[in-house]
């Protein structure tokens, strides 16, 4: 039934999702290796990457936004930020006119270290993308934005079935 809808859209979706799952696995492994290279726990390294990426985009994170990006409680986020700040990996500043708003910034060395680690990958990704016309890459960016919006909407709607309890074998 599902396959009959939209000229094989379901089959295409499955192929694309498999490719994205593989990419996600590679990303997770790369993040794990970056954490080991920095001598950090993987959650700490993920936080450093989120902070650096947001800052690079010109939209630095607050602690609350970081805790949404790497799902942690407020207390766990505070402990993580304390560790990262003590190690010099991040700084917390009060740049907003409302002095209660805290902005997270990467430490002076973090972008340099991230560039050193991820630079070779950036070169490989640029080479892989270079044969494709800019219009196609723009379409792909739009496609990824739409996939992410669909996932965000699904997660926000809470449509997933309730978690099963251990020993519950009912379908």
Oligomer: single chain
Low-confidence segments, given as residue ranges, are none
Helical content class: 55-70%
The largest sheet is: 2 strands, antiparallel
Topology, element by element:
Blueprint: H1 9-38, H2 42-57, H3 63-69, H4 74-86, E1 90-93, E2 103-106, H5 110-129, H6 134-157
Antiparallel strand pairs: 1-2
Helix pairs in contact: 1-2, 2-4, 3-4
Model description:
By secondary structure, the protein is mainly α. It folds into three domains: 1-39; 41-108, Orthogonal Bundle (Arc Repressor Mutant, subunit A), CATH 1.10.10.10; 109-156, no CATH class. It has helices at 9-38, 42-57, 63-69, 74-86, 110-129, 134-157, and strands at 90-93, 103-106. Strands 1-2 form a two-stranded antiparallel sheet. Helix 1 crosses helix 2, helix 2 crosses helix 4 and helix 3 crosses helix 4 (74-86). The longest helix has 30 residues, at 9-38. The mean pLDDT is 88.
Describe what is shown at a glance.
The protein has 171 residues and is mainly alpha-helical.
Primary descriptors:
Arc Repressor Mutant, subunit A, mainly alpha, about 170 residues, single chain, two-stranded antiparallel ribbon, 3 domains, about 65% helix
């Amino acid at each position: 039934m599902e396959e009959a809808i939209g000229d094989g859209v379901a089959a295409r979706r499955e192929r694309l999702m498999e490719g994205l799952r593989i990419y996600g696995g590679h990303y997770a492994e790369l993040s794990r290796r970056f954490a080991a290279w920095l001598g950090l726990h993987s959650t700490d390294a993920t936080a450093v990457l989120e902070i650096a990426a947001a800052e690079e985009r010109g939209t630095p994170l607050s602690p609350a936004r970081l805790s949404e990006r790497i799902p942690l409680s407020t207390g766990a986020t505070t402990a993580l930020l304390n560790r990262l700040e003590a190690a010099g990996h991040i700084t917390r500043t009060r740049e907003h006119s409302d002095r209660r708003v805290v902005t997270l910034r990467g430490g002076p060395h973090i972008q340099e270290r991230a560039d050193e680690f991820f630079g070779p990958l950036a070169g490989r990704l640029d080479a892989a993308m270079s044969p494709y016309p800019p219009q196609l890459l723009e379409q792909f960016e739009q496609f990824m934005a739409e996939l992410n919006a669909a996932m965000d909407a699904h997660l926000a709607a809470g449509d997933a079935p309730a978690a099963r309890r251990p020993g519950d074998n009912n379908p």
